[in-house]
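Re: [ENG-882] Designed sequences occasionally contain unexpected residues at chain ends

Forwarding the minimal case from QA. Structure tokens:
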């Protein structure tokens, strides 16, 4: 749990080996919300496995998933919803969630699209290239891997051609929540050794602009977990994933 912005608590877990990698987006956006978050990352990294299934956490998130936010007696789940709430509550700089109706709608357009596209395809590639073979010891059939790569490339092309086009950022000349959510999902396959920026100069230039806008140190800190995932695999006890193995296999096979 993290508390540090006018009594607001953000409950999350630091996941260096996959799953909802939108968590760094929550972390990055919190930096914008408050300048007092000196050790936000380490504070939010303290998480006890399974605690979100306990009764206390159930009072905060009925769906028992992280991240979750508590602001007084108001509780909220889902990372995108949390960021939009913080943007409104703290009246963050207009670039994040613009007041202009059309620009705001463009942000919402991307946030609505990404769930079943780049987020799903990036996560799938991470699991199929790293988690499933390295931790579960299961070889992913070539046709499955090829299909997943095709889906990922299709989503990346859509981002370049439909969302970015010839603009510096997704909705214009300034970085918004759309770019923040996009970058953490697009970075995910890199953790499995797949450089999605190779051969994509437009996407690479956009990443560099996002990094410059956020600040290199903060950008690197937010992504150090996913980029170090292959080394982290060496420390994982495969037996801890046995309980989830049937569900994971149903998702990907």
């Amino acid at each position: 749990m993290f508390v540090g912005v006018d009594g607001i608590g953000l409950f999350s877990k630091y996941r260096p080996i996959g799953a909802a990698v939108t968590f760094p987006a929550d972390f990055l956006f919190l930096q914008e919300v408050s300048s007092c978050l000196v050790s936000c990352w380490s504070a939010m990294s303290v998480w006890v496995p399974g605690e979100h299934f306990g009764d206390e956490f159930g009072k905060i998130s009925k769906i028992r998933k992280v991240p979750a936010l508590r602001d007084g007696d108001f509780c909220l789940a889902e990372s995108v919803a949390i960021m939009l709430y913080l943007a409104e509550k703290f009246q963050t700089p207009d670039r994040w969630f613009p007041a202009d109706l059309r620009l705001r709608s463009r942000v919402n357009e991307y946030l609505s699209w990404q769930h079943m596209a780049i987020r799903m395809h990036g996560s799938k590639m991470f699991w199929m290239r790293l988690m499933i073979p390295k931790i579960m010891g299961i070889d992913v059939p070539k046709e499955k891997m090829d299909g997943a790569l095709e889906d990922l490339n299709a989503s990346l092309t859509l981002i370049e051609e439909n969302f970015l086009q010839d603009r510096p950022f997704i909705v214009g000349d300034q970085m918004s929540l759309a770019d923040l959510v996009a970058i953490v999902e697009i970075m995910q396959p890199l953790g499995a050794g797949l450089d999605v920026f190779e051969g994509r100069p437009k996407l690479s230039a956009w990443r560099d602009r996002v990094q410059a806008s956020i600040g290199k140190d903060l950008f690197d800190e937010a992504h150090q977990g996913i980029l170090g995932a292959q080394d982290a695999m060496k420390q994982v006890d495969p037996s801890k994933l046995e309980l989830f193995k049937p569900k994971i296999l149903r998702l990907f096979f």
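QA comment: On inspection the terminal residues look reasonable. DSSP finds twelve helices and four strands in the chain. Proposing we downgrade this to a documentation issue.
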